[in-house]
Amino acid sequence: MKTHLPKVNLNERQWHVIDAEGAVLGRLAVQVADILRGKNKPVYTPHLDAGDFVVVINAEKVRLTGKKETAKEYMTYSGWKGGEKYTTVEQLRAKQPEQLIHRAVKGMIPKNRLGRVLLTKLKVYKGDKHPHSAQRPAALKAAH
Q1: In CATH, what number does 14-63+97-140 get?
Q2: pLDDT digits over 92-118, tens only?
Q3: DSSP readout, 42-79?
Q4: Which residues are CB-neighbours of 106 under 8 A, at least 6 positions away?
């Protein structure tokens, strides 16, 4: 007996727009990661890219629960001695609010070649304007 592998048709990829205003960051990131991987489709296969494109707008209006706004820190490392830099959510929201959602989703997808391909299908913008209207994205409600 042979194992059936679904054909992933690249022409059937959908575009989705999610408004992040008032949405909790973690719940939104789970929803976006599932769409990127294709877990919402019957043809989901763990080692294939069956997901859709996701456009997230109003990234600066995403919500965090508890004391995460001031206590949570993101660390970057340059590779040199003493090259660690820490950034709080407040600072990141002021400078690059898109990175809040991007980093949260990145942590929820595979850490391999497939994961890097999946991240290219995520488009995050501050404000409610985006340049992907030609793709006619379907509006999705963010998980609150």
Answers
A1: 3.90.1180.10
A2: 999 999 999 999 999 999 999 999 999
A3: TT--TTS----EEEEE-GGG-B--TTHHHH-EEEEE-S
A4: 115, 119
Beta strand 138-140 with 84-88: parallel, antiparallel or unpaired?
Answer: unpaired
Task: Give the C-alpha separation, 62 to 88, whole Å.
Answer: 15
pLDDT digit string (tens) for 11-49? 789 999 999 999 999 999 999 999 999 999 988 889 999
Collapsing DSSP to helix, strand or coil, 115 comes out as: helix
Locus of tokens 């709080």: 88
Maximum Cα–Cα distance across the chain: 57
Distance CA 52, CA 40 (A): 10
pLDDT category at 5 given cuts 50, 70, 90 is confident
Q: How far apart are CA 74 and CA 113, in angstroms?
A: 23
d(CA 24, CA 142): 9
Six-digit token string for 129: 């304007």
Q: What's the pTM value of the predicted model, to 2 decimals?
A: 0.92
